[in-house]
Design a protein that fits this description.
Elements: E1 3-6, E2 10-16, E3 19-26, H1 28-36, E4 42-49, H2 54-62, E5 66-73, E6 79-85, E7 88-98, E8 118-121, H3 126-135, E9 141-145, H4 148-153, H5 155-162, E10 167-171, H6 172-179, H7 184-193, E11 198-202, E12 208-211, E13 216-219, H8 233-246, H9 253-270, H10 284-298
Parallel strand pairs: 1-4, 1-8, 2-6, 4-5, 8-9, 9-10, 10-11
Antiparallel strand pairs: 2-3, 6-7, 11-12, 12-13
Helix pairs in contact: 1-8, 6-7, 8-9, 9-10
Length: 300
Amino acid sequence: MSLIVLGTVALDSIKTPSGVKPELLGGSASHFCMSARLFNKIHLASVVGQDFPNKHRQFLKKKGIDLTSLIEQEGKTFHWKGEYKKGDFNNAITLKTELGVLMNYTPQVAASQRKIPNVFLANFDPDIQEYFLKLMDKPKFVGMDTMNLWIDIKKKSVKRLIKKVDLFVANDGEACALTGESNLIKAAKHLRSLGPKLIVVKKGENGVLFYSDKFMFSFPAYPVEQVIDPTGAGDTFAGGLMGYLSKSPKITEATLKKAVIYATTLASFNVEGFAMAKTAPLTLAMVHQRMKKLVKFISV
């Protein structure tokens, strides 16, 4: 019951009040894999340029990520340069974006991977996400993430694709932008009406809201004392969520609650260091130790 993710693999140059770090390994798929790997065998589908450092490729392999469908094309790897100002970690200031090889990327999937039952479409152009999904052979469970950019410029494509997935993950701003609702519960209900049976709305430091036809719940975020770099926190969350669900024989209310708690815990590690400094060394034992503290916050 392995899991394949389509998303970006990037070189991120990040500036925060804690420092400046050039050309770190980033991208939606990379961050997703770093948490999902704790639960299942993960296959990564993406594209990099000829400038992609071999050390990053070897790093992903050492973490057990299957890179069969990570292709290399002539050109430069997707590069994002951004900054977070003191006191405002919810809004990244984009200083520079070089799409590079993403501009001409057509997803490829090895024949041996087409029957993988669990698929996650991490943040990417929705048309590329849909193309990739068509390459897969009747997956059993499909999850999807997106971002405001695609909602703004390709809303029709996002809505067309959302009908084909089981799980939709978005942050609060994206959920409201896609539905036109200002209330998150109404936004979640609207998203459910578009197709996905399971809706997860990330609220950043305010936690997470889950919605389905049968039940709804909300959990707080884990209280982090010092945020160093929030880049990839949402993708880390999605990796923990989908990773746990992909290995579960049956998806129940209890399973979903545990998956969301895992995801919330993993995202809290992500923000405590630049890029994957805090998520790369993680073991499940380390995650469980923090999870116990989070459960205490939730329990009455």
